[in-house]
Amino acid sequence: MGFFIVQVLTGLSSAAAVFLVASGLSIIFGVTRVVNFAHGSFYMLGAFFAYTFTSHLTSVVGFWVAMLLSAIAVGLIGVVVEILILRRVYQAPELFQLVATFGVILVIQDLALLVWGAEDLLGPLAPGLDSTVNIFGTLLPEYDLALIALSLIVLVALWFLFNRTRWGCLVRAATEDREMVGALGVNQTWLFTGTFFLGSLLAGLGGAAQLPKGGASLLMDFEILAAIFVVVVVGGMGSILGAYLAAVLIFEFNAFGILILPESTLVLMFLLMAIVLILRPWGLLGKPEAPGQLGQVGPPELPYQSASRPLRIIGILFVCFLFSLPAFADDFTLVLAIEMLIMSLFAASLHFAMGPGGMVSFGHAAFFGGGAYAAALLVSHANAPMEVAMLFAPLMSGVLALIVGWFCVRLSGVYLAMLTMAFAQVAWSIVFQWDAATGGDDGILGIWPSAWASDRMAYYYLTLIASVGGILILRHVLFTPFGYAMRAVRDSAVRSESIGIRVSRQKWLAFAFSGFMAGIAGGLFVFSKGSVFPDEMAIPRSFDALIMVLLGGVKTLWGPVTGASVFTWLHDEISRFEYWRLLLGTLIIAIVLAFPQGIAGFFGNWWHRLRNKGI
Amino acid sequence: MSETSLQITGLSKSFGGVQAVMDVSFSLHPGELLALIGPNGAGKTTCFNMLNGQLKPDSGSVMLFSKETVGLKPADIWRLGVGRTFQITATYSSMTVCENVQMALLSDRQQLMSFTRRASRMYRPEALELLKQVGIVEQEDRPCSTLAYGDLKRVELAVALANNPRLLLMDEPTAGMAPKERVELMALTADIVKERNLSVLFTEHDMDVVFAHADRILVLNRGKLIADDTPENVRNNPEVRMVYLGTETEEIAHA
Amino acid sequence: MLNYKNWLSGMLAGIFTVGLAVPAFAGGTIKIGDINSYKRLPAHTIPYKMGVELALEHINSAGGVIGKKLELVSRDDNGKPGDAVKIAEELVSKDRVALISGSLFSHIGLALTSFAGQRKVLYVAAEPLADALVWAKGNRYTFRLRPSTYMQAGMLAEQAAKNPAKRWATIAPNYAYGKDAVAAFKKILKSLRPDVEFVAEQWPALFKIDAGAEIQALSAANPEGVYNVTFGGDLAKFAREGKLRKFFDGKLILGLLTGEPEYLDPLKGEAPEGWLVTGYPWYDIKTSAHNAFRNAYEAKYNDYPRIGSIVGYNTMLGIAAAIKKAGSTDTEALVDAMEGLTYDSPTGSITYRKIDHQSTMGAYVGWTALKDGKGTMVNWTYRDGAGYLPSDAEVRKLRPAN
Amino acid sequence: MLEISNLNTYYGRAHILTDLSLNVQRGEVVALLGRNGAGKSTTLKSINGLVQPESGSIVFENESLNRQSAHVVCRRGIGYVPEERRIFTDLTVMENLEVGTRPPRKEFPVWTPERVFEIFPNLAEMRNRPGGQMSGGEQQMLTIARTLMGNPKLVLLDEPSEGLAPVIVQQMAKTIHDLKREGLTIILSEQNLRFATKLADRAYIIEKGVIQYEGTMDDLAADEDVRNAYLTV
């Protein structure tokens, strides 16, 4: 009895901090449509600030003042980020802002290291709440009850704020139609800033509130990210109560799940998410997303045209250059070039789904890593030669994408994106935790190319032909009826249905094809590195691909290739510096501010203007 | 009764307890232009979406050329020969005018899974022919995103005609057009109907258009069919005047 | 503690500080390629690098080896094995390093192991613990210094076997290291004490422990002894919840690595008391060699050494000894020299075994206690690694033929 | 009251409004006539700041509105009723009105929900109904009511009769007529000449972004050539 109650309460208290952070994310997304990847960083900052403040304010009252101060401090940092960066890119094509938030993650990581040092910081016990209560013979820390109370207080306060105050009313209106709110005399600039303040404040409060349960560490930012995204999506985007229910559901599921299946941690959460979204595609309390809310703003895309003669010549010259590269490049340049080519193909495959296909995937690494693992497993378990394994890689990621796609394509916009991330996390969790088959975290080693390709130059040519070929195939498909039908479905689903296009099937096959092509990149990758690890399926790898596509420009076919090359090269150059994350983050933010259409998008427009002037 | 294109019996649909369409029955004959009018929110678009398969009715039957279509998907219903235009034009903004029509032709010829040829070169002459019929062939290569609204309506018509439909469903075909364009478009539609012996079911708020072109008029109010009659009788129906047409006596003098 | 006093100047200096000191290939130096997760887990890797640099300072001030100075070319692997392999390629082909060394994470160590075998480059793994590194995935070109998971689990199992506790529970992060650590412990303990039974296993996700729920689940099984493999933030949460919920009372708790300063120190006054752990009681090691190391370290950095520091220091001593023994920086000669290499270190004599390239560096096993509001190890003994490795016959089965 | 001169507006590369000039006197209802795509909506959006004109000047009550964002224009006293209605569907009627509420202005009547409900009695019966569950006609009423809550001096009405049943159009005409009697100045964008004729004092005819005709409603009624050229069947 006591055990059961305590386990329930423990689940509720674990849910509390995650709910606080997730509600902030949900609010920010609802109003500003920014998918704030940096939300985890705000959570981390909350914990660090709280650590500093509580070390000075040690009384009972002081502790709670410190919590509040930390939340406000993080809220103000959110305001700074919003004013300095995001405010300037709201007009950019949707999702582009998340590149900026990715830059913010990098900057905050290094700044936190500079300010608070490398060591994990253990939080103090909450003064006055540092003991336990006895519930039918089982002990429960008092602070757990405080956390539960805090989460409920915040839940009620948010409800009151949104439903009983003018500001809340304006925010809800802005969630639906921000432009109209502006036309009614509301300064939406400050409404956005205010929203960002509130959202960041909640992230900071979550980070501060969990301090007595754990502490502050530099790894907190990415560790909470998946959890809060899951909570927001399971609860339903924009629903605060939904986020609360989702957090409770997930952590109760976990608290009792580990009693029955101790090894099911990680997978449980994502499995629950997949189940909820299959049954209720818009989350527990969410509403269907209006069509075209993601990736469909900005100036309309122009019809496809065959490459003009000058562009064709430039392209051919560039490929010739790539073919002659080994003649004058040193060994390492080839290594870097191999990686750039592989990443270009990976990014191009994602672009195929998210640009012309209109299906943004936050989990594309599943197919990249899936291909890599398929090849590696075939080599390590069946002793297959490289040639066979490389063909097997895209087939298996294609099959994986067919399975994932079957669930995902019924959704759209950010829900689709989140569901792909959930499936990618399921795939990652399986690979990470099922070490009997996959070697788990220790990966699969010794996956080296066949003798003829083991020379670096030979492997470079293999990669060059496969990647450039793959990218050209992706491009070609866009011009075929299949590619047109895919774009048709994106442009107008109702029109497509009414001229006999099977919308879901078209999206499904397009998604699978995109996964198939990512698998080629994965196969090339594993043989270039000689090993594969779960990291290749993890969230940061998916983010990499997303950043590459957006950085290059989602509206042009050459955006992903440009983005992948620039990002890979920059990463390699900059990581020689000690505080490279700070530098890379700043640089990414600078690129975002300078090229809101993406790099290739920017030069594409520039080229267009040049041509129109008749030069 | 002569052969019917469309026979609707007892069609009903509700959303979360709100009865949007209630026990609606009517029929449509080849060569007939049938107008469906009624106040906003009367259930016209819901009706349309059930005929075209986007919504599944709660009850009732839709017989299309003597074939039950309830439960079929829009794509299947399209294959039975139903073209559709939308209240808010639904075209492919990232494609040219001609490509929009080519899409419908590609779908009609079952070429959507083709990975070999370039789509923009397939069935182009047929597409141009359709564009000529609706009078915008000279805009063939313009992106749809840059077209004037009235022209988009014509593109939609060309797209809807691509699979040689026997029934056209047109949801407010002239909404947002200037008076002159409205008349032109409806005259064009009437010509095509005559030439191909089509049936047309359309909704419309412009009474000039309705009374000028409809052979018969259905009036929906709060989900119920309150009239199914000739234009003249509908015009004089007191209930219709009260809920929809209004009375000229409320005319405000020009101040 | 905040070090924001000079963080601004530090930041400006830091951004523009290039990791590699001298770019050109100077004739008078031997370059050592250093790869580590300096950003992903700085609390561990920075002390490591400090130890490495101290050793280089000592070696070079004593005239270097074979007449040349040792020079470190250090790079961050971003915590990603793919990046580590790329950097290794770059260090070898661009910077012309004689060998590569370093790394903390097991999976990165394994990626570099595979790279070393393929490219025939010497790789001296400093800290990664995975057993596979020298056994299942071992190769001619890879050596490892720190006592592996198997060895440290063995040291704890040996002590556990002497305790009357029969009902055992385990808790370990749910990934390769955790699984290895639990499997090794169970195997060794069972062989020493066939009468023990394992009544519960908990597998929290790495760095995502739901500590309250896990403690509850463990206590439901009512064990007498608990073998705990959690570390970092997970350990802090586990220790705190367990203490609050009085879970540890009356039980024998074993903590793998828990006694290492990197894990014990952040717990401050809440460090567990009375756990049997492996670790590094630097404050209490009174040998003259260690005193010299500790004094030099404290003088140079105004900070005390961590486990990473001593591992880094010992790694470089071993590399210097190998180069001296080989008399050249030719990879094959270096590998031959490393096999069976014995050298003296602050923690005693270390041998890189010829049979599996595992060093015999040991670990300290003792009991945790609180002293001046800080966790310490008491009643510890140094366990030489040689005693915790399987027999040669077993090793031959574990390790593929070269 | 409002003086616009030589306005030029672009969407991307497309030139939408060319050297557009118009003026509105206090208390007037001015109709902006023209077919779809002629530039009526763009004119209104250029005035209220949703679209930023490339060049030209907009002066409202002797103060420039050039390059001001929408909320500033609204605060100066120009209300905007969009063609697409853009009701906040998740918000109740009362909440929709709340969003539109601005502080009262001196010398102008102050709108309260109660006064608004006098003009739109059927809205009063559905105060707590979400905007999404209202019919098109009711939504159109709510859009106007919402704008009135901002106590505007001038209202930009974009095609209020579009897509509405004839009976609702008649009600709408009556409502606008009432508002005019309240002293509100209105710019009415319309395609429906009959509707505009009932309400407006003066009219501008716009075609391809250029003002083609300017005159009183009576003049327009008399000028069959103009009507034939730009408006009629």
Alpha carbon gap, first and last residue of chain D:
34 Å
The share of residues in extended strands of chain D comes to 25-35%
Q: Whole-number radius of gyration of chain A?
A: 25 Å
Helical fraction of chain D equals 25-40%
CATH class group of chain D: Alpha Beta
Stretches of chain A where pLDDT falls below 50 for ≥5 residues? 291-297
- State the total count of DSSP E strands of chain D: 10
Major β-sheet strand ordering of chain A: 1-4
Describe this structure in words.
The complex is a heterotetramer of chains A (615), B (255), C (402) and D (233). Chain A has 615 residues and is mostly helical. Chain A has 2 domains: 2-221, no CATH class; 334-550, no CATH class. In chain A, 73% of the residues lie in helices and 3% in strands. In chain A, the strands form 3 sheets. Chain A has a two-stranded antiparallel ribbon. A two-stranded antiparallel ribbon of chain A has the order 2-3. In chain A, a hairpin with a 2-residue loop joins strand 2 (132-135) and strand 3 (138-141). The longest helix of chain A is centred in the first third of the chain and has 31 residues, at 2-32. Chain A is globular, with a radius of gyration of 25 Å. Chain B is of the alpha/beta class and 255 residues long. Chain B has 9 helices and 10 strands. Chain B has a 6-stranded mixed sheet, sandwiched between helices. In chain B, strands 2-1-4-5 form a 4-stranded antiparallel sheet, covered by helices on one side. In chain B, helix 3 packs across helix 4 (124-134), helix 3 packs parallel to helix 5 and helix 4 packs across helix 5 (149-160). The longest helix of chain B has 18 residues, at 179-196. Residues 249-255 of chain B have low confidence and may be disordered. By secondary structure, chain C is an alpha/beta fold. Chain C has 2 domains: 4-147 and 286-362, 3-Layer(aba) Sandwich (Rossmann fold), CATH 3.40.50; 150-284 and 363-391, Rossmann fold (3-Layer(aba) Sandwich). Chain C is 41% helix and 20% strand. Chain C is built from 13 helices and 14 strands. In chain C, strand 1, helix 2 and strand 2 form a beta-alpha-beta unit. The longest helix of chain C is centred in the N-terminal third of the chain and has 20 residues, at 42-61. The model of chain C is unreliable at 1-26 (pLDDT under 50). Chain D has 233 residues and is α/β, with parallel strands linked by helices. In chain D, the strands form 2 sheets. Chain D has a 6-stranded mixed sheet with strand order 6-7-8-3-9-10, sandwiched between helices. Chain D has a 4-stranded antiparallel sheet with strand order 2-1-4-5, covered by helices on one side. Classes of the chains: A mainly alpha (615), B alpha/beta (255), C alpha/beta (402), D alpha/beta (233). Chains in contact: A-B, A-C, A-D, B-D.
